Amino acid sequence: MLRRLYDWTLSLAASPHAAWALALVSFAESSFFPVPPDVLLIPMALARPDKAFFYAGVCTVSSVIGGLFGYAIGALLYDTLGTWIIQAYGYGENVEAFRHAYAAYGEWIILIKGLTPIPYKLVTITSGFAGYDFLWFTILSIITRGLRFYILAVLVNRFGAPAKEILERNLGLAAIILFATIVGGFVAFRYIF
């Protein structure tokens, strides 16, 4: 099954809908969806290294727009939708501590968390809830999400062919590492804050 999903993702790169699918996942991940866009970005960039930077741009723009949506959830809908999302991920009791950390370290939280496997949606929703400055949130989101996705594009351009061979030979291990990274991000977020 994993091989079929990987092959489907590679075939998606040749599809005229590739960028739209990537944009949708990237948008959703920044506001409510648990799967990071890297799951699509990496195989698509490996399949089409000539489009790696384009795909990174798509991820950056759609992730920032999704982040703005997540911010709106936190600022405008926290008592209903925002609380439900935070509770669904099991972080309800940590949100207040996270909000207070914004008073002193807001910009560093956004920059660092935007680069890590810690779910960005939790940062975006909490930024809105904490009332972090919207303009600075947007600027920092562009910086951190851009860095994250363009670093991947650079790595794919530099190590694309060998990386693709290694990934294809060790697809199961790569899936386990990706899953562990996602779960580790959620756990880290929960226990750091």
From TrEMBL:
<dbReference type="InterPro" id="IPR051311">
    <property type="entry name" value="DedA_domain"/>
</dbReference>
<feature type="transmembrane region" description="Helical">
    <location>
        <begin position="52"/>
        <end position="81"/>
    </location>
</feature>
<protein>
    <submittedName>
        <fullName>Membrane protein YqaA with SNARE-associated domain</fullName>
    </submittedName>
</protein>
<dbReference type="GO" id="GO:0005886">
    <property type="term" value="C:plasma membrane"/>
</dbReference>
<feature type="transmembrane region" description="Helical">
    <location>
        <begin position="171"/>
        <end position="192"/>
    </location>
</feature>
<feature type="transmembrane region" description="Helical">
    <location>
        <begin position="134"/>
        <end position="159"/>
    </location>
</feature>
<keyword id="KW-1133">Transmembrane helix</keyword>
<keyword id="KW-0472">Membrane</keyword>
<keyword id="KW-0812">Transmembrane</keyword>
